[in-house]
Backbone:
């Protein structure tokens, strides 16, 4: 049995209580939500915190999917299973259900949270790629109130986020635009493995059927999940077509920075960035047109 | 799951009982406790005053130990004991023998030789404190260059790993050869076609769900040591402890309680067991050691790690003449191979496969590297996994070269039924076999011809589909004592059977289950012979104080050896029962007929006594026949005449995504012939597990190292084992070719599927990649490695 180093544990019952405790304990403390990344790291003693602040009691306060005109707001403590099962979310953003289906296993999905996934900031993490794809923004609450940062600014490197010592992520916001859809694909060596590469795409068409906007987010091919502005530029104003997706794939392969590891060679990952970008763009557009699941 | 009955072409049984083994598909007697989570494993054991042990391991693959400072750890308020290699050396316990007559450090004294090697241990009041205190031990290392690539381990400038061995100036471990080199060269010279291929079987790990561990309890009052440990071979371990510690066997009790999977990982004696014993001796308290997942993966017995060159010679029309192979074997830092002493390469000699050859030859060189020791583990039947993989891969390479169908090529070269018993060119005597019907059944179940048609259509559309075939013969049930021993201990198995007065029985066995269903299978064997219901037969095993001597469970030997013992001891009891029955029925022994469970007078079925009646008489008042003692029990020690040779035909269908190169195993047909089938449900369970293992090895599993010798596979997120999502619904079938020398005709089956499935899967992937000009690609066939092959550059994994 792997056993963590000694730590103190405190369960909190409100966001305010969590933040004041964080404020007092500084960087010796860490929030634990689902715990499926943090606890294994502590057991391996890769992460050693003196204090764990358990925020699972905040599920009532921060576990929600709220659909408003032009905006979907998801609480940071919303669990994977709830994201997977939300029909409203799947209707607006099929990319969520695509991704949740390939995240870990039911045991992890019962427990893991959206906020925990984003704050872990693993370069291979699926929901980070989804949020990047959907141009999400993150609500960070601190002692002096809240601030909102874009996904680009939220992740600051592998396992590093914009969340400060006395702050916590409370909500993620997603703009909803008309005539849009999305899709996600992941290649993994085995179910439950981290992605070799994964890609999300969101596409919005204008009234004439031209691409009004498009975004692609890739995981596991750089220090953080990244949106690729070059693809957005290349696709805007164009007719959706295979040739265009191929060009987007080339841009994705060019823009990413994979490294060779046990999951695959850098060259293969670059190939996958291309291949998966093409697939998710094609599927997202097909979904707008009412084709395909 | 689909099960299809065999052709029924062979249903003859060697025993006088012309029926298959009784109570066939009964549910497992052990399952009520397992499915409720009520199994009792080593880690469930709690003893009064028990302390906890943690092992400090080397972070480096090769380094000299300059100093070990334990001062701070000893000062930890909950620590009772800190032990270093130097302290063990003072007691003569720093080194211990391995199962291959090498030595292995219990705790390193001079150097560390692999990452994860044991350096010191702490005994503390709880396991948290023990683990915390490890971080308070200060070890100063002087790093040395590691030897990681087996192919350069013997180069003259390679650092010498085993400078502990006197006069050792290189990393050579042993050489071994089998077959006839000159005869084989001659066969190759007259061949029309010669194919050779470099084939790597990567290092993999058994990765049982329960890691290794022990609780040692030395009682200073009666001088007796009790060791509960995760062992597949309690009696063999006890004798080795007795030899090392200088204690008599009766002062050592080894208990192997419920075990959460072995697969060979729990055959060796690990330093942790010895540390737990030392900890208990020094503290006078029970001491528990349970390794964690990372420790299990990085330091305990690995499997495979053979770099092979396979060569096959044939005529133009596909008659195979000879197979030749050259093997470089990576044995890690210590030769910890668990194999009979005359077989340093295990039973790799069966690389001639199921084919009638004119010649065969193997030359092997084993070397030391800075990696964990081990060598034979993971359901391999003593290296038969490697042998079968080599021959089944190289036969497929020949089919590729000749442009023939791989099934046809195999059928053409099978050993024919009338040739059994068949002596192979490497000296193995296959006891029995009838291969063509097994292959035909697999072909029929798979719909082989339709699959080939589908493949042709798909290829025309640019889709990638492959069909892979393997055919294997295993040699299991070690073994005859004239040939086989482990450290001088012969591989015969004892068995004791006692029938109580009420007709209930207890059978005591030396083998121990790790999940194979022994409590059911052995009860069924005795039930079949004595007519006592299996529910009334208690199987006792895994405790050296309660069971007769025997060598343990591995290499699929439980049914071939202890299964035979159980049948024979029951017959011995039945012979005594016959004498008692003759006096009860007042007829001569010759006038009695046995019908399962009772004797009756010939010609008068109503004049009968049941085995239960006889048991009561044997223990009760009243006279027994002249010369017959009371009681109804017997014991024997069974020395197998030969190994048993199960065989099987496997067909695998894969689809490969042309864009991502991801392999999906769509179908898998497994037809096994393990002779007489005792409990078909248990056999199917064994086969399903082994096939799943095969998917793991073929597609994802590998213990990898970086160039500094860091193990890159120390967690189950890095060392992938397959889940239900990676495997298809297994389609199984069977034929029955009984072993002629086994009392009930049974052969071992525990490892058949692990042996037979990797070549079928790899052959399917390579078959799928035929349009890319690929003749061979090494495991593990991860998406990335398959994609590289599709680009025309398949690369070895090391």
Residues:
């Amino acid at each position: 049995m792997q056993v963590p180093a000694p730590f103190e544990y405190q369960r909190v019952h409100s966001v305010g209580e969590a933040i004041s405790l964080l404020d007092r304990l500084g960087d010796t403390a860490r929030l634990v939500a689902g715990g499926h990344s943090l606890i294994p790291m502590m057991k391996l003693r890769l992460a050693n915190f003196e204090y764990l602040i358990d925020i699972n009691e905040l599920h009532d306060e921060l576990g929600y999917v709220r659909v408003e005109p032009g905006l979907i707001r998801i609480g940071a403590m919303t669990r994977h299973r709830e994201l997977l099962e939300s029909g409203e979310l799947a209707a607006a953003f099929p990319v969520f259900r695509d991704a949740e289906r390939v995240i870990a296993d039911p045991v992890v999905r019962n427990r893991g949270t959206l906020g925990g996934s984003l704050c872990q900031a693993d370069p291979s993490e699926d929901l980070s790629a989804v949020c990047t794809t959907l141009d999400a923004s993150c609500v960070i609450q601190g002692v002096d109130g809240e601030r909102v940062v874009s996904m680009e600014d939220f992740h600051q490197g592998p396992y590093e986020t914009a969340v400060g010592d006395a702050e916590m992520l409370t909500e993620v916001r997603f703009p909803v635009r008309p005539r849009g859809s999305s899709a996600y694909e992941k290649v993994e060596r085995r179910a439950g493995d981290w992605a070799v590469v994964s890609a999300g795409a969101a596409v919005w068409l204008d009234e004439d059927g031209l691409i009004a906007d498009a975004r692609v987010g890739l995981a596991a091919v750089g220090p953080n999940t990244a949106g690729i502005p070059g693809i957005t530029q290349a696709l805007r104003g164009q007719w959706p077509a295979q040739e265009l997706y191929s060009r987007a794939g080339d841009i994705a392969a060019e823009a990413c920075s994979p490294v060779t590891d046990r999951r695959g060679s850098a060259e293969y990952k670059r190939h996958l960035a291309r291949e998966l970008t093409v697939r998710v763009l094609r599927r997202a557009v097909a979904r707008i047109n009412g084709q395909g699941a | 799951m689909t099960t299809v009955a065999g052709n029924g072409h062979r249903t003859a049984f060697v025993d006088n009982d012309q029926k298959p083994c009784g109570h066939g598909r009964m549910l497992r007697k052990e399952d009520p406790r397992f499915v409720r989570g009520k199994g009792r494993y080593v880690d469930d054991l709690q003893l009064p005053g028990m302390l906890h042990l943690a092992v400090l391991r080397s972070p480096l693959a090769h380094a000299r130990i300059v100093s070990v400072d334990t001062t701070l750890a000893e000062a930890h308020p909950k620590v009772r004991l800190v032990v270093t290699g130097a302290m063990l050396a003072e007691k003569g316990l720093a080194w211990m023998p391995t199962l291959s007559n090498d030595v292995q450090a219990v705790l390193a004294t001079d150097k560390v030789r692999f990452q994860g090697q044991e350096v010191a241990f702490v005994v503390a009041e709880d396991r948290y404190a023990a683990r915390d205190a490890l971080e308070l031990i200060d070890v100063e290392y002087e790093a040395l260059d590691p030897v990681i690539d087996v192919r350069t381990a013997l180069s003259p400038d390679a650092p010498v790993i085993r400078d502990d061995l006197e006069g050792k100036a290189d990393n050579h471990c042993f050489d071994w050869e089998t077959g006839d080199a000159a005869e084989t060269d001659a066969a190759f010279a007259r061949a029309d076609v010669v194919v050779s291929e470099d084939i790597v079987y990567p290092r993999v790990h058994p990765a049982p769900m329960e890691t290794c561990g022990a609780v040692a309890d030395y009682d200073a009052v009666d001088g007796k040591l009790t060791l509960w440990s995760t062992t597949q071979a309690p009696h063999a371990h006890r004798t080795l402890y007795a030899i090392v510690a200088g204690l008599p066997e009766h002062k050592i009790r080894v208990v192997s309680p419920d075990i959460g999977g072995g697969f060979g990982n729990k055959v060796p004696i690990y330093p942790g067991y010895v540390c737990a014993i030392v900890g208990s001796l020094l503290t006078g308290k029970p001491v528990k050691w349970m390794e964690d997942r990372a420790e299990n993966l990085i330091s305990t017995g690995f499997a495979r790690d053979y770099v092979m060159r396979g060569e096959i010679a044939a005529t133009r029309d596909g008659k195979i003449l000879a197979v030749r192979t050259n093997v470089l074997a990576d044995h890690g830092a210590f030769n910890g191979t668990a194999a009979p002493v005359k077989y340093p390469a295990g039973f790799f000699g069966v690389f001639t496969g199921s084919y009638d050859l004119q010649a065969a030859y193997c030359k092997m060189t084993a070397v030391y590297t800075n990696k964990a020791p081990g060598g034979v583990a993971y359901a391999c039947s003593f290296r038969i996994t490697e042998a079968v993989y080599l021959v089944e891969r190289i036969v497929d390479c020949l089919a590729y070269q000749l442009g023939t169908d791989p099934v046809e090529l195999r059928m053409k070269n099978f050993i024919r039924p009338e040739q059994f018993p068949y002596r192979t060119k490497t000296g193995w005597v296959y006891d029995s076999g009838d291969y063509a019907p097994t292959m035909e059944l697999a072909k029929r179940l798979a719909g082989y011809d339709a699959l080939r048609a589908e493949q042709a259509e798909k290829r025309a559309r640019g889709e990638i589909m492959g069909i892979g075939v393997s055919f294997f013969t295993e040699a299991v049930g070690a073994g005859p004592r004239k040939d086989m021993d482990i450290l001088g201990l012969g591989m015969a198995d004892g068995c004791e059977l006692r029938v109580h007065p009420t007709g209930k029985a207890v059978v005591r066995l030396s083998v121990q289950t790790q999940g194979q269903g022994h409590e059911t299978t052995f009860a069924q064997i005795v039930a079949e012979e004595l007519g006592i219901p299996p529910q009334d037969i208690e199987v006792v095993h895994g405790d050296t104080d309660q069971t007769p001597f025997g060598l343990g469970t591995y290499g699929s030997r439980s049914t071939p050896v202890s299964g035979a013992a159980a049948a024979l001891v029951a017959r011995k009891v039945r012979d005594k029962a016959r004498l008692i029955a003759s006096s009860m029925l007042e007829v001569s022994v010759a006038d009695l007929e046995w019908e399962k469970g009772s004797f009756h007078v010939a010609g008068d079925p109503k004049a009968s006594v049941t085995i239960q009646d006889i048991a009561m008489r044997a223990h009760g008042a009243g006279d027994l026949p002249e010369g017959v003692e009371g009681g109804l029990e017997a014991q024997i020690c069974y020395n197998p005449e030969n190994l048993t040779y199960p065989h099987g035909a496997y067909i695998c269908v894969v689809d490969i995504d042309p864009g991502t190169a991801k392999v999906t195993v769509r179908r898998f047909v497994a037809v096994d012939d393990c002779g007489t089938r005792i409990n078909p449900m248990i056999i199917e369970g064994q086969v399903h597990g082994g096939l799943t293992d095969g998917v793991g090895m073929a597609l994802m599993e590998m213990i990898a190292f970086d160039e500094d010798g860091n193990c890159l596979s120390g967690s189950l997120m890095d060392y992938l084992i397959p889940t239900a999502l990676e495997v298809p619904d297994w389609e199984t079938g069977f034929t029955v070719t009984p072993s002629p020398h086994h009392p009930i005709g049974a052969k071992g089956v525990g490892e058949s599927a692990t042996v037979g499935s990797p070549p079928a899967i790899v052959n399917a992937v390579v078959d799928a990649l035929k349009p890319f000009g690929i003749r061979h690609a090494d495991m593990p066939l991860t998406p990335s490695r398959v994609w590289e092959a599709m680009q025309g550059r398949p690369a070895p994994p090391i």
The first strand of chain A starts at residue 8 and ends at 11. Chain A has three domains: 8-57, 59-175, 197-288. Chain A has a mean pLDDT of 95. DSSP finds 13 helices and 14 strands in chain A.
